[in-house]
């Protein structure tokens, strides 16, 4: 996939009585293979922005391109992973992970084998005939990751996928997702409220201002942190310095809003 670009994107929600501006003049370039995180206060439009990139919402003004092609004209394969796993409880794990293939019309024995291979790599091969309610929360999120990977997306959108997990499971899954996406050279955009998570997983962190969401500042994460697994990144000697820089910037936004 070629570079993702947002060109002066704004989004307003209209009601009978008023118009609410959620995002204003967002321009951003995301390079191939980059892991980008989006931070910002609640209500600043992070998820709205992700939905626009996914093609689920059309911006009020501006546009999104992938490889110089408008998002609506391109056939980009975009994966979306949410806070909830949204597995179908009446389907087995094997059926759940191949559902995306069936929807996209790419299902075949070869595609199914690829999905099962991912399931094996993520340590769940022996769970393929079970149902979601027989798995832990962390296992279910791994299944949701497999379901996304099974369609071979080139761009992955992650909307707080670890926030509902206990801390130990969250840290393990962060490492797993990071390692998987980096090894496959996937481009990823993560929405999170967690400064530490953003630093540990990302090449860059975009901080949005309070509503209407604008790009307030973009932080380049030092290579020595960005190139290591998230758990190890948190132990890095410069991690706390980076955390304090972003924390203070977010605090300044809170006091001026």
Automatic annotation (TrEMBL):
Q: State the source organism's domain of life.
A: Bacteria
User: What sequence ranges are listed for the domain ABC transporter?
Assistant: 4-235
Q: Does the keyword Thylakoid apply?
A: no
**Family matches, as Gene3D superfamilies:** P-loop containing nucleotide triphosphate hydrolases (3.40.50.300)
Recorded hits in SUPFAM superfamilies, A to Z, give: P-loop containing nucleoside triphosphate hydrolases
Supply the alphabetized keyword list.
ATP-binding, Nucleotide-binding, Transport
In alphabetical order, the GO MF annotations are: ATP binding
Q: What is this protein called?
A: ABC transporter ATP-binding protein
Organism of this sequence: Halalkalibacter kiskunsagensis
């Amino acid at each position: 996939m070629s570079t993702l670009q947002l060109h002066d994107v704004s989004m307003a929600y209209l009601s009978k009585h008023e118009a609410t501006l959620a995002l204003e003049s967002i321009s951003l370039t995301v390079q191939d293979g980059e892991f980008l995180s989006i931070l910002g206060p609640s209500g600043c439009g992070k998820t709205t922005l992700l939905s626009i990139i996914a093609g689920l919402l059309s911006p009020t003004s501006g546009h999104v391109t992938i490889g110089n092609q408008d998002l609506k004209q391109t056939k980009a394969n975009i994966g979306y992973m949410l806070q909830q796993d949204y597995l179908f409880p009446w389907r087995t794990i094997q059926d759940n992970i191949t559902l995306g293939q069936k929807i996209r019309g790419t299902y075949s024995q070869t595609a199914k084998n690829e999905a099962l291979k991912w399931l094996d790599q993520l340590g769940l091969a022996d769970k393929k005939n079970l149902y979601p309610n027989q798995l832990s929360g962390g296992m279910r999120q791994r299944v949701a990751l497999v379901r996304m990977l099974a369609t071979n997306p080139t761009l992955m959108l992650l909307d707080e996928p670890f926030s509902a997990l206990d801390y130990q499971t969250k840290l393990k899954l962060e490492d797993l997702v990071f390692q998987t996406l980096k090894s496959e050279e996937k481009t990823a955009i993560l929405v999170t409220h967690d400064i530490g998570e953003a630093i540990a997983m990302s090449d860059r962190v975009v901080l949005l201002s309070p509503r209407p969401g604008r790009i307030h500042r973009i932080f380049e994460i030092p290579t020595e942190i960005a190139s290591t697994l998230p758990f190890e990144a948190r132990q890095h000697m410069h991690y706390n310095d980076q955390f304090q820089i972003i924390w203070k910037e977010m605090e300044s936004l809170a006091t001026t809003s």
